[in-house]
Amino acid sequence: MPLYSYDELLNKARKGHYAIGAFNVFAMEFLPSILQAAEEESAPVLLQINPIHFYLADLPEYIRYIKAQIGKTSVPVGLNLDHGVSREVILQGIQAGFPSVMFDGSRLPYAENIEKTRDIVAICKAIDVTVEAELGMLNDEGLELTSETQDRLFTDPDAAAEFVAETGVDALAVSIGNAHGFYKGEPKLDFKRLRQISEKVPVPLVLHGGSGISEADLQKAISIGISKINIYTEMSAAALQRVKQLSKNDKDFADYPRVLFQARQAVKDLVKSKMKIFGSAGKA
Ligand SMILES: [Zn+2]
Question: Which is catalytic among the residues 58, 82, 119, 128?
């Protein structure tokens, strides 16, 4: 199938009350894991690359390769730049061939986030590139959640409505107790806040830091209005876990292609299980 647009994938998910899984293709060896999982589950999917992993490949060449692989699949697949934190990185991504980008101004003061996001949207709209932005800060430092930290970090529903109206973004990533990496303790999502955001914001909502959130909480978040969930940490951990197991059981641990194949299988199994939880399985 030809490359699908981010917009089309998310708006369909929003109407159908499921979420698109967005999985990082941080290294070329896990691209087949995600595409095979999507084919086997008949699931629409988004592939993402985070700029922190640009060093692993020649970016324009890698994107050409990814697009060629997408062209051979029978399910809808989109491609998104994850966490572009500056105008320069966004432009680098667009030049390399990303049809959609996430601009992350979430660490900036509110007015500056609006201004910079609006500037990115103006550039992207002119060349038909979709923009995801973020309002509110993820609790990546694992701070204790008090009413003070929640007010400071979490997405404010009224500000979210204003932010989307002022910037014209296509999707909004929210902070409701989610975080990147492994959670310190049980993640606690603020569903009441998510419901208020969902009622006020007219574009699809995105949940970063999907790794480590329980199946029940993910499904509840989807039922309230999350249309895209990012998964990275659990994929990386699944691959490493399989490699660890192999090294323990195998005295002659020297067959790298076999290890790579097993790591790919572990990632594929994980992606398939997420597609079932997200409800995107069977929606291709
Ligand atoms: Zn993220």
Answer: 82
